[in-house]
Amino acid sequence: MTSPLDDRQAATSSHPEPLVVRTVRIDAPDDLLSLLPADAPLTWVRRGDGLVGWGEAARIDVTGPERFADAERWWQDLVRHAVVRDEVGLPGTGPVAFGSFAFDDLSAAGGALVVPRVVVGRRDGLAWLTVVETAGTLGPAPDWALVARHVAGLTPVRSPGAVTYASGAVEAEDWPAVVARGVAAIRAGDVDKVVLARDEVATTAEPLDVRHALGRLAERYPTCWTFSVDGLIGATPELLVRSDKGLVTSRVLAGTIRRTGDDDADLARAAILAHSSKDLEEHEYAVSSVARALAPFCSSTNVPDAPFVLHLPNVLHLASDVTAVLGGADGEHGGPHPTSLALAAALHPTAAVCGTPTEAARDLIRAVEGIDRARYAGPVGWVGADGDGEWGIGLRSAELDPADPRRLRLFAGCGIVAASDPAAELAESWAKLVPMRTALASD
């Protein structure tokens, strides 16, 4: 497939005069999400800790195969010229950019890094406030009073009202045929595994207040990373990469079974999943792809001998936490560590969201899937001034329609191997749509 996006695209950015960034410690707020405005909130929260932000001090929009590299260069240039006073010194303090990127190089959805004007973070009981300004707009020293004034001006969270659903680019009843084409390609030896996705369209009665969905996601899926970045919202169970002072972590999920709602039955299903040759094969491909991608950057990598079963309210997953130690820019010699964004770019797309071999699986997705994934299944998260940060995979997510505040696209994908049954994969996709459907509900 050819596209104008095969050639490098020029990035567009807002690049103001050098930023002045000040971070101070504050008392920990009860709920980070309660600080969010209705308009374009930025969120990365898990178990009550994380980062929220609002306003826009700077941003870059990127497209094409070089989107990660363009964003990386812009970010490094921005922080190199910034004036920073960080009184806290924790991951997520000082300058921070939230980002999300398209799954496919050819997608017009591209990607973006957004630097908020205000960030509130919390980690292990400690909280902080970061304010980003320029020399020409410099105000008083930041303190909790700034946040209190912001909260006092917030509008109440609004319900979206009744929600209706319709098939997206591919009708639900036609999707098993898409899966069957994937299985046929695997059995023909074209690929070992492919991940195929589908979308559906949700329409709300009232304009969506994103805070409604984010609050419900965080409450129901506290072990997932609840995110909102540049029109993509969701709660992902899959951590693409965390980089923290030279230690790298990636949580790999592949192999899924629906929950029944009965605890005893679900324990039995967990045992079935843990011994399923089909699901273990799918999981092994995903873990191996992550370990291979990290190897050039790391001096050591630890891959668990066997996955564990991750219990979520809607599904059970086979999961493995891969850890590694950064070993310099090329993995062998000294030099600056790659940033978390660079690591995310190297890891994307993993076999958990694309397949293996990567290029063949991506070509097959383009040929048979029938949708533009946009930023679904792409990296979403944040990066700090030192390059550390956290990036998830944009799963269990929805894309807001910028032209219609009542319209969203919801996504679900399934890993396909030779033993996959198309009808069962359709049922699994319905289970993976549950988090976002629940988040939109009014009750």
Describe this structure in words.
The chain is α+β, with helices and mostly antiparallel strands and 443 residues long. The protein has helices spanning 67-81, 144-152, 175-187, 210-220, 263-274, 277-294, 340-347, 358-368, 422-440, and strands at 12-14, 19-26, 42-46, 49-54, 58-62, 83-86, 96-101, 111-115, 118-123, 126-134, 163-167, 193-204, 225-229, 232-236, 239-244, 247-258, 298-302, 308-311, 315-326, 355-356, 379-384, 389-393, 397-400, 407-416. Mean pLDDT is 92; it is low at 1-10 and 329-333.
Sum up the structure in keywords:
443 residues, alpha+beta, Anthranilate synthase, 13-stranded mixed β-sheet, 11-stranded antiparallel β-sheet, 34% strand, globular, disordered N terminus
Terminal residue distance = 45 Å
Pairing-aware structural class of the strands and helices? Answer: alpha+beta
Mean pLDDT equals 92
Please write the CATH class name of the largest domain: Alpha Beta
CATH topology of the largest domain: Anthranilate synthase
Number of helices: 9
Q: Assign the CATH architecture of the largest domain.
A: 4-Layer Sandwich
Strand portion: 25-35%
- Cα shape: globular
Rg calc: 21 Å
How many structural domains? 2
Helix content: 25-40%
- Number of E-state strands: 24
Q: Could you state the CATH homologous superfamily of the largest domain? A: Anthranilate synthase
Report low-confidence residues grouped into runs of 5 or more: 1-10, 329-333
Q: Biggest sheet, in brief?
A: 13 strands, mixed
